[in-house]
Amino acid sequence: MSMQNSKASVLIVEDEPDISEVIRYNLSRAGYRVRNTLDGEEGLIMIKEEKPDVLILDWMLPSVSGLEICRALRRQKDTRDIGIIMLTARGEELDRVQGLESGADDYISKPFSPAELVARVASVLRRSKPVTSQEALMYADIEMDLTTFRVKRSGRYISLGPTEYRLLRHFLENPKRVYSREQLLDAVWGPDIVVEARTVDVHIRRLRKALNSENGADLIRTVRSAGYALEKPLS
Ligand code: CA
């Protein structure tokens, strides 16, 4: 993989060539990998070819409108997390309400300064970073939906308290790894929280009870004097 691939990528969909070029020039200079197109439909194809980190989308486009593109991207699982900055012309203020509902992350009214746009791109990237692009975690017959916070075991919903949810999430992100109580406290409660190590045992017990409520195999392995792991029992 080349160095280039580590740069954040931006796609510009804007039908006014001069504006598109100014944006392209400034974002390239700011270190982004930039592609651009004047056409909405081509933009959608380019997104399929390679998902951008940020999309700069003009509101008024000839073939398919920015609003439609925005809605379509938010509907699809694999494009839902693209940061979208909508460009609106003067006089389109009314439509901004509609735009907000469509799910854009930010708006810039024309005319705008290139410096402002570069700053907004950086801000959208910062905000979208902690959001995992992953929608679900799975191990054995456990499924955790990270968007709805619901957990299923063997296809049936189980109810978990917030701490048990975070514990399970940590295990699902690192299955089969044994964690000591101290490591779990750090990872799940945070390093600054003072809790007794025994507290971990209490929450592990609750998690185990919730997970096993449907008589499934016990997936939490207790490793004597070492800690716990999420692991399928040897059969
Ligand atoms: Ca336009």
What does the model show?
With 235 residues, the chain is α/β, with parallel strands linked by helices. The protein has 2 domains: 3-128, Response regulator (Rossmann fold), CATH 3.40.50; 136-230, Orthogonal Bundle (Arc Repressor Mutant, subunit A), CATH 1.10.10.10. The chain has 8 helices and 11 strands. It has helices spanning 17-29, 40-49, 66-75, 95-102, 114-128, 162-173, 181-189, 197-211, and strands spanning 9-13, 33-37, 54-58, 83-88, 106-109, 136-139, 142-145, 150-153, 156-158, 220-223, 227-230. The strands form 3 sheets. Strands 2-1-3-4-5 form a 5-stranded parallel β-sheet, sandwiched between helices. Strands 6-7-8-9 form a 4-stranded antiparallel β-sheet, covered by helices on one side. Strands 10-11 form a two-stranded antiparallel ribbon. Strand 6 (136-139) and strand 7 form a beta hairpin. The two termini are 41 Å apart. The model is unreliable at 1-5 (pLDDT under 50). Bound molecules: calcium ion. Residues 15-16, 58, 60-61 line the site of calcium ion.
Short account of what is shown:
Helices cover 39% and strands 20% of the residues.
How does the SSE layout of this entry go?
Blueprint: E1 9-13, H1 17-29, E2 33-37, H2 40-49, E3 54-58, H3 66-75, E4 83-88, H4 95-102, E5 106-109, H5 114-128, E6 136-139, E7 142-145, E8 150-153, E9 156-158, H6 162-173, H7 181-189, H8 197-211, E10 220-223, E11 227-230
Parallel strand pairs: 1-2, 1-3, 3-4, 4-5
Antiparallel strand pairs: 6-7, 7-8, 8-9, 10-11
Helix pairs in contact: 1-5, 6-7, 6-8, 7-8
Calcium ion binds near residues 15, 58 and 61.
